[in-house]
Amino acid sequence: MYQDKTLKCKDCGKDFVWTAGEQEFFAKKGFDKPPIRCADCRKKKKTQHQQGPQQQVQTSSDSTFEITCSACGKKTEVNFKPRGAQDVLCADCFQAKMKKV
Fold first, then answer.
1. Is 42 helix (H, G, I), strand (E, B) or coil?
2. Given CB 3.0 to 4.6 Å as the disulfide criterion, which of 20, 37, 67, 101 pairs with 41?
3. CA distances (Å), origin 25, targets 28, 61, 84, 96, 100
4. Which of 37, 31, 49 is nearest to 7 (CA)?
5. Nearest to residue 1, comparing CAs of 18, 23, 16?
6. 59 near 79, Cβ under 8 Å?
7. Would you call 2 exposed, middle or buried from its count of C-beta atoms within 10 A (0-12, 13-18, 19+)?
8. Residue 54 CA, distance from chain mean position
9. b/e 81-91 (16+ beta carbons within 10 angstroms → b)
10. Along the chain (101 residues), what's the average pLDDT of each consecutive run of 10 residues?
């Protein structure tokens, strides 16, 4: 019934495949329009939405920046350029902080 379709991402312009399984899932959920963003851009948009507009930062899937977590001191990489003296957390400390909020 469903066949894979190639769509173009609204944000990055890359082609992505909307699989037959995804189409079936959309239909079961009552979504009548195909996705307009690829999986990477949907994830980035969701993350930005969860952070809220005051905390949004410019991200890049092509670049990573090495940081030292301001909470635990662990060295790791992030996909955004840290600004100034702003505290930057590793993924574990960030998740722990979000659970407290």
1. helix
2. 37
3. 5, 27, 43, 32, 33
4. 37
5. 23
6. yes
7. middle
8. 17
9. eeeeeeebbbe
10. 93 94 92 92 84 54 81 89 82 87 71
pTM of the model: 0.48
- SS3 call for 43: helix
pLDDT at 97: 87
Q: Is the dihedral of CA 57, 60, 66, 69 positive or negative?
A: positive
Distance CA 78, CA 73 (A): 14
CA–CA dist 11, 38 (Å, integer): 8
